[in-house]
Design goal:
Order of helices and strands: EEEEEEEEHHEEEEH
Shape: rod-shaped
Helix content: 10-25%
Distance between the termini: 42 Å
Number of strands: 12
Radius of gyration: 23 Å
Strand content: 35-45%
Length: 155
């Protein structure tokens, strides 16, 4: 596992959302005279795009159970991290196309809500500081660019 900040361990990712856990020693359970070590786990799901996060406490887990569960690649499918799976669709910063311009060669120049413009023909990219500047660059590029769309199928 990778450490992702103070006391947080990166468990898995779901798109732009990181599912992390902070693990601390818990109060040991005593079962049939045996002392079983436990851990307290606090899950944090954080979106790298918008910064929103959800914190969820888990129950006290037996240490050996946590060690088995935390190494499973599909930990998010256990119910922990439900927010992480749903958030990408609701994220206010989710990458969205806000405009498209057609080049003279037939390729498309796309403008996103992050004011990034990119040409699917020649590959040129521009990062604007506002929607009007991004649209202006995309439109002027489309008027001049003669690149044809890239054939991804190789045919």
């Amino acid at each position: 596992m990778n450490t992702a900040g103070r006391d947080l361990t990166l468990i898995t990712t779901a798109g732009a959302v990181d599912l992390m856990a902070a693990v601390t020693d818990g109060s040991p359970d005593i079962i049939r005279g045996r002392t079983i070590p436990t851990v307290d786990v606090v899950f944090t799901s954080r979106c790298r795009d918008c910064g929103q996060a959800e914190h969820r406490d888990s129950a006290n887990l037996w240490r050996d159970v946590w060690e088995r569960v935390s190494t499973r690649p599909n930990l998010a499918s256990t119910g922990w991290g439900e927010w992480a799976r749903e958030h990408p669709e609701e994220c206010p910063e989710r990458l969205r196309t806000i405009a498209r311009y057609l080049t003279a060669g037939g390729a498309v120049v796309t403008v996103t809500n992050r004011y990034e413009s990119s040409c699917a023909g020649c590959g040129q990219v521009s990062n604007g500081d506002s929607e009007p500047s991004a649209r202006e660059w995309a439109q002027s590029h489309a008027e001049l660019c003669r690149a044809m769309p890239v054939d991804r199928d190789g045919g």
